Fold these 3 entries.
Entry 1:
Amino acid sequence: MKKLAASALLIIGFVFGSTAAIAGGDPEAGQQKSQVCQACHGTDGKGNIPTYPVLAGQYADYMEQALKAYRDGGRSNAIMAGIAGPLSDEDIEDLAAYYSAMEGLKDLSIK
Ligand code: HEC
């Protein structure tokens, strides 16, 4: 009986552990993978020039959709298509986790 309880816990732990991994990317891995992005989107994710969008504080699911759309052709932009082309779903989730955890803009100056 004890054995059964232990294996039940193990299964529960496994199921929850793995859903967490599926649902959210790994922000630390995302930081590593963001090196190439920083040239345009900035080390702080806020964009080096106004035409490079702010990524810091963006919703993770929005960012995942945007990157998959660039990669799969649903959203066309020559620069981002080239960048997103080689990214796996896991890369995209990690990058989204990293940028969404960053502090975003506080004052958008839009009134
Ligand atoms: C050479 C410059 C450059 C690099 C490098 C770059 N980007 Fe971009 N990124 C852009 C530009 C320009 C846009 C705006 C494209 C558009 O109008 O759709 C953009 C748009 C995006 C968007 C959509 C933002 C929005 O608000 O819809 C995301 C998400 C994004 N980039 C993520 C990344 C990630 C992640 C990386 C690194 C893997 C990266 N970018 C690397 C230039 C760059």
Entry 2:
Amino acid sequence: MATKNKSNDLHDENLMDHDYDGIGELDNPPPLWIMAMFYITIGFSILYGAYYFWLKQGDHQDAEYAKRSEKHDEKFKLNQPSTGEVVLLTDAASIDEGKTIYKEMNCFACHGMNGEGNAIGPNLADEFWLHGCKIQDVVNVIKNGVPAKGMTPFKAQLSDDKIQKVSSYILSLKGSNPANAKAAQGEKCN
Ligand code: HEC
């Protein structure tokens, strides 16, 4: 501060040697930490410029976005068109995978560990169905859900392929008679 203690003294060692109509200038350098930050930002901008612009190593926004979307689509396979008629899978590997999906997607929270049903969702292991027992019916319910009744739509979270597998798993439960089975709901259907 120019008005305080020794800075007030015109013979101050910080006084620069020009003088305009008796007005002098004090040379007060900014504190070291500000200068350090200043030089660090310059250093950073050189590295940043080199990485993204001169050496073209880093991805710019568009490329980064495209890469990320690709990864996302790959993960959820959302861009795969539906393949028309769905067929029931009966091979052990697909049923097994369906079972894993059933667990991973928390279907058990509403339908029980073994599809026996619970207070929320219906029994999936009996012969009675609210929305039909054909593979296509089951696929449709899982895809589009029954939001008004509390069944989540899964089309945004599961690929058609995975929905086909989890549907096949569910249909494979028929006759498994799980413990604590929930009372039948809907129409009998074989
Ligand atoms: C938040 C609870 C909830 C979750 C999670 C859930 N469901 Fe459901 N689900 C329901 C309810 C409730 C119904 C009954 C809808 C109705 O009454 O129309 C239902 C119905 C169904 C039906 C039709 C049953 C019938 O009798 O026609 C199928 C198939 C089904 N769910 C499969 C699944 C699968 C597979 C998953 C996991 C990917 C799943 N559900 C996750 C609550 C849930």
Entry 3:
Amino acid sequence: MKRLGKALVIIFIAVAIIAGAALSYIKLALPDLGDAPNLKVEITPARVERGKYLANNVTVCIDCHSTRDWTKFAGPIESDSEGAGGERFDKKVGFPGEVYVPNITPYHLKDWTDGELFRVITTGVKKDGSAVFPIMPYKYYGQMDKEDIYSIIAYIRTLPEKETRVPERKLDFPLNFLVNTMPSKAELKTRPSENNKLAYGAYLVNASVSY
Ligand code: HEC
């Protein structure tokens, strides 16, 4: 009996050590997608125009990253809040924790390089190396054409500054660990010609997936 007790204690300690090591690995070493690319996006009128179209009508960055008037049908964007962030997902909407939508105007992003923006949009890895909770559909953005991502970056760099900050997110266990396993490498595609209606339509549908 004594032996069995001892064996159980050893097994318990071994399992605790393995679980601890696995959780530390997930928390500290993941996501592991490498450095942000070294790139400089030139802001041209054509890119800003294309980025404006995509961010407002296709990838709907601005829908999420603005405050919304939920008393009205479909929750239109509150005037003058474009890019200011501030919406919150929490237990009231069945969310396992609290996630706030950050400001994406230059006020908040001026210290981010273009490469860091490219990496967060296409893989979900933030400037500090942590993972974005996939409310933001970065896996779909990671299948877009890099030129379209450059256009979105050019456009959000031109948004009027909004001086807002959001609180730190809090995720419940085990999501606070699992979130780090979610980012994956981008699989960028070439944008089909607009004359190829089927392929171009499929490209836009992928880019507009949002939940
Ligand atoms: C469905 C909502 C949604 C959409 C659409 C969306 N985002 Fe996000 N985004 C979020 C949320 C929520 C976070 C923060 C998640 C977290 O903290 O884990 C975030 C994080 C970010 C961040 C990181 C900011 C920081 O401080 O860490 C950037 C930059 C960003 N989004 C830009 C964009 C761009 C550009 C697009 C469009 C291509 C976009 N987002 C589309 C919800 C969205």
